[in-house]
Fold these 2 entries.
Entry 1:
Amino acid sequence: MMKKTWQLEDLDCAHCAMKMQEGIAALDGVISASVNYLSARLTIEAEEKDMERIIREAVKICHRIEPDCRIVL
Amino acid sequence: MRRSRSATASSRIAALFCKTMTRRQKKNLRRILLAAALAVAVVLIPAEALPTVWGGESERGLLRLLLFLVPYLIVGWDVLLSAVRNLFRGQLLDEKFLMAISTVGAFALGEFTEGVAVMLLYQVGELFQGIAVGKSRRHIASLMDIRPDTACVLRDGEDVIVSPDEVAVGETIRILAGEKVPLDGVVLSGESSLNTAALTGESLPQHVASGDRVVSGAVNLGGELLVRVESVYAESTVSRILELVENASEKKARVENFITRFAHWYTPVVVGVAVLLGIIPPIFDGNWADWIGRALIFLVVSCPCALVISVPLSFFGGIGGASRRGILIKGAGYMEVLARAHTVVFDKTGTLTHGNFRVTDVSAADGDAPALLALAAAVEAHSNHPIARSVCEACQKTTLFSAEDVCEIAGQGMSAGLNGRRILVGNHRLMEENGISYIPHSGVGTVLYVAADATFLGSILLSDEIKPEAREAVAQLKSCGVRRTVMLTGDRVEIGEAVVREIGVDEAHCGLLPEDKVAKTEEMLTKTPGLVYVGDGINDAPVLSRADVGVAMGALGSDAAIEAADIVLMEDRLSKLPEAIRLSRRTMRIVRQNIVFALGVKGLALLLGALGYANMWGAIFADVGVMVLAILNAMRTMYIGKGKG
């Protein structure tokens, strides 16, 4: 199990952060996910083998909810 | 006095909004200004002045609509676009969707000015919010501007500039004046003073010389230092502090969770009521325009943004402001508990007292106290026990005698041969064991008895020094609303009670083993809400993690304490504890103000709107105005006036 944190660029709405968190947490293999609006950080806890797939999906979710927001990979 | 402070605070806030905008925000500002100018122009054109082809009233109205649509679309096209997008994705209760519906609705009712104004002010609010949040993020980041960029390491006699995480334990680094200490270590040579303000909030520089420990993140103010690295970068003080502060906002406060749940229900309920309001009453009185107008007011007020943003922002600012003063809080939840702390439990040694023993009385049977002390020190010089070291420290003449054949008697003391006599130095049990009749010392503390062969020579009293600020700190805790203060100690009852009398703690539990402290804390936990435990974090990690809030004191450089505690006081100063409570209470007060204010105004707007007394302008204030005021109020938590605290 591992925990990774990414910076989010242009995360401009608290509501969207909440929705991103819900969306990412619901992904297959995610043990826990948190999107912190104020520190603009995304933290995902998952098995190492799933991580790459999860972050690819997370990028899509973020783009769908807030098109301007970007995960700094 | 008070007014001038708040005046400077508000001018400071105003000033920072002007210069800290991103490019996107500047673009948005231009867009808003352009749309606002156009809207004002359109409003100012009298309807009669509009040119017409047929001269009909309805044609004039259509032209006016088209004119109003220009600023409306300039300022709101992106909102409309994302509203349509959300419509297809089934996210109907998105705030953008609500804004689109209410403004389009206003246009449909012929309230063009209101429609444009709602969209304009919504965008102003968004812009404002973006700037405020960006500002807070940067402010907190600058507070934490302690991350060293490079380290200058000596390798093969040459200075090499590397990243701090490439330096290994045991290497020697050079720190020039003005540079940050990149890694924890011990000074090998050089002398300087360090500014640890960013770590501890203490502005007085700390003097360091050869042999002293330096902590990463401090700034070298004076001369050049050569330092032997004691821990790798990832385990250094600076990384631990940064990690702690950056992760702080993950532990949510109960009130934050409440707001999240509230927001989850508030919007759907308000929108539902709006729909009913727009449909049911007009079925009976047929006044569709009026009731739909009232429903639109509901939609405008239905966004809980003011709360969703200002509450976490208050905690964010509060935690950031506290960290600047050397108080690291691991999450908003702990701030909440600290604000309503009921009982504060102290560990005695190392918290209320310095944790080092000092010789406070020497009573020799023959009246020659210095000689007795020297004799004891000659024997104790062979031991590493803290008490032994204190005896040696108190006596400068250890070379007078040289002891031989030294042996340590566990739990009792020491015995040694000296000038042909057998010297015993130890507690009363050592005396009893050897059948020596001694005069018990009446003082409070740890007593050492000294005997030569079978003759009692005298006794030495050692006491743990109470911290000078302990009494004041306990009194301040009381004035911050703490009901009960308790001291836990492994020491004997007499020692404990003496400390209680001196400091003014309400009660003491003495003679506790480490596991008893855990049990005692758990027992108190079941009876009291809001139990704060304060320890030095060295051997009380289990208790620290058991209490509602565990506070570790003087943790600068102590990894175990930073790990186990919920709140870390970087400096070994008890006065930081009441300060932490006051900061928490201030933050909670601001959070409560925002909740009451936002809910109050929104509730009022909803009520008046439903009864037909509020117009669209009132609704706009209840939405954007409240949000702006709540954010400004929340930002106060970051700025803590100097001297106050």
Entry 2:
Amino acid sequence: MWPIVQAFTKFFDLAIALFQSMHPIVGLTVISVLTGAVMLVVWKFTSNQDAIARSKSKIAAYILEIRLFPDDMRAQFAAQGRALGANFRYMTYAIPPMLIVLLPVVAILVQLDVRYQRRPLEPGEVTLLKVKVAEEVDLASVTLDAPAGIFVETPAMRVVAEDEVDWRLRADTPGEYDVKVTAGATVETKRIVVGERLTKLAEFREQSNFLTIWMAPAEKPLPKGSPIHEIRLTYPEREMKLAGISMHWLLVFFVVSVLFGFAIKGIVGVEV
Amino acid sequence: MFSRHFRTLAWVFALTAIFFCADPAEAYIGPGAGFAFLSSFMVLFVTFILAFVSILLWPIRFVWKLIFKKRPPKTDVDRVIVVGLDGFDPNQCRKFMAEGKLPHFQKLADQGTFDELQTVFPAMSPVAWSSFATGVDPSRHNQFDFLNRDPRTYLPDLASVYIGNVSRVLNLGKYKLPLGKPVIRLLRKSQPFWKILGEYGIFSHILRVPITFPPEKHNGLLLSAMCVPDIKGSQGTFTYYTTDESEVGEATGGVRRVVKRNGNTVEGDILGPSNSMTKDEEELTVPFKITIDDAKALATIDYNGEKIPLKQGEYSEWIRTPFNAGMGVKVWGLVRFYIMEMGEHFKLYVSPIQIDPEKPAMPISHPTFYSMYLSKLLGSFATLGFCEDTWGLNERVIDEDAFLKQTWITHEERERMLFHSMTQVKKGFLVCCFDGTDRVQHMFQRYLMQGHPANAKLDESAYSDEIEKLYIRMDEMMGRVMDKVKDDSKTVLMVMSDHGFAHFSRGVNLNSWLVENGYMVMKDGGRTCKDWFRGVDWEKTKAYSFGLVGIYLNIKGREGQGIVEPGEEAAALRQEIKEKLGALVDPKTGAKVMNDVFKTEEIYTGPYAQNGPDLLPAFDEHYRQSWEAAVGKAEPEVIIDNVKAWSGDHCLDWRIVPGVLFSSRKLARKNPGIMDMSASILDLFGIQRPGYMLGRSFFREDSSDAGQTQKQSPPEEREVANA
């Protein structure tokens, strides 16, 4: 499974690399547009287009019906009830294609999330590195080796109740670094990115399972059975501003993909 | 039942789970779902806002109605439903009822009344339905025929509607942008009785009553009918594509085009309206490409981004067709395809392009969005006034089967409207007219007459039961209508027609008769002229005829090149023509052609009498104005065989083609007339008829002048005619 995720992640790396020198919103917009187009086509072929068209027509008709009988309250409320009923049927027609496109869209969103939700550390910024280990591991045996460019500011703080060891790190110089975490005979690494680049960021490495493979594609999961259960590092939230207005990347993605989908739905011939 | 509810609950649960349990980032799953979510939210929002506004406004409207609307006295009638069956003939009804083939009509007759409904003269749908709507005669509603003439030019105009161009345009390069709307004016005078109902707060549904275009405002809903044009502005223009070059030539009511078959494909263009937004006014077209699979006997029509599979002998659904006029403006039409042949030759019929009711190029309903509502709710439907393509069959570009299929498709559309409206109208008035009854009888009457000239080369027995089938089918429909109102004692149900039917086997060219008798003279001294009087010497012509109704004198000061002095000379001329024409005998049969010839004032006394013909011939059965004379032609012979499929007619002596009236409530008197309908319906709602109406309620015995359709048909005379 991991090679597939890696290939998918690589594809996004290449795509994002094209927009590396531009404002982050440019790459996000292009990906949103492409996603909107592809998902629209998928929607076309996975939904009951006739039924959706009929439902939409009926909704419009019942709303018009409310206006046709301005003096008849009974007729108006009946029309409103029918409009809501037709609306509900319309929603039910949307469920099968929604379920079908759910997985690919979530995979895309995760790829965007690891790039746009947070930003790398800037030189001088500090963060916490938390390591969770198996119960039987002696917390005193858990150590950290940081390369030049990353300074370990504090000695290890051991939280026995949580089987956790924490360090405070400071980013010194831009670059990508692997810090080494040792627990007994086991050694694992955690990537730390310092600088301004738009790149994928993994906040944690967990033991491998289907969900972590897809939901945390930026770094390889920890091997199953490892005494190290999790390595977690906190990156700051990325603030994306356009014309001085701060906006969440998901909102940009939603608006751009919906607007683009709306613009081309006639060309693609899709009922949505 | 349980499993259905269970499925519904499962869907509700799934939907809720997706929207409420998913992480916000994961809940968004693409633009399709985004739209679904947004538009559903909009629907909820709009419906709640409308509900709120309705509740808020209702007391205001109620008080306004209380103060300003008239209130009729209480009656025992809440609802009146009229089913109009155009051309439904009383003689056929009696015959089939006697044979037990119309049980529902029989039941209605037993419960209430079945009688002949006297029609007006001329006995034509636009004239008779106008009298139905207004309660007055043609000289008061100004409808004498489909066509009226422009006396200055002798050219025809539509009698019921004036459609003008936009007066001011903005020139922008090759475009001319209209600054305003074109003038569309109804030329029918007087007012329909549903306007009066509206003044009393009674809501009316008016579905496809002829001569309601453009739609007039009233308290209710209206879908226009007869004289609604197609998208080209004509009264119906079919297009026929054929690979057989021998079939190409002039066609009335349509266009024939040759197409080439290349391998297994045929390409062509659907011919739309001329582009009124450009200076060249070029014809707008939409291309189509047909791929023929001979092995499967299947054609696939690639049209406007759709692929439409179609077998020979099948109609496509209505296909929405945008004609791009430029600058982002599209004119929307509806077409049906029908493949006549896929063998040695490829033959394709394309219906007249209807105005799309969902995006109407001109208003065809009141309110304008009513047609959109019907289309969205019940699907696309034919909007053309004369939507059964009788000229297609006359010209033999379609055959009898194709015509019947088209007619019944249209009928089913109309049925859906009727039954839907019946569920909506719990109180008020509903009328729905069906035209298929008229069209089928027009086109299949020849099978009821041995040796009809139109059937000379055809199997006379092939469609001999079509008219019977038609009546039985109407009976079956009425069974369903009656079923819907059976427990409703406050509903009065009526079935009516505007006229009946007679054979039309011989065409009388009144222009040829005028030439023969020296009243019409040609420039070349000959006996014939082309359509619309091309070749007529107006300086020597005293009378002329066109349309289906009568003869006009060429009066000085009224006609553009009139030569007959008004007054004594005109009166003497009219008397002379009346006497001579009245004595016309068919040389083939020796039968008298006319029952009578009337002078205008003998029939009409209203303010628009002068707009009608000066002389009105009342043809006997089998005779009618010929097709050629109707378009202003003169031919060598006066009376010729009618060889067109259109073989039944009613444009003759009105006394021999009355309509029918079935009423669930017994009539209080005999001899009801079509003009009485409006007064009678007003009466059912407790409203007194206005003074200008000639019709009287047939639910009252005290209407001494009841049903007087015109001066020539006092009740006692009509009783004789009925007998």
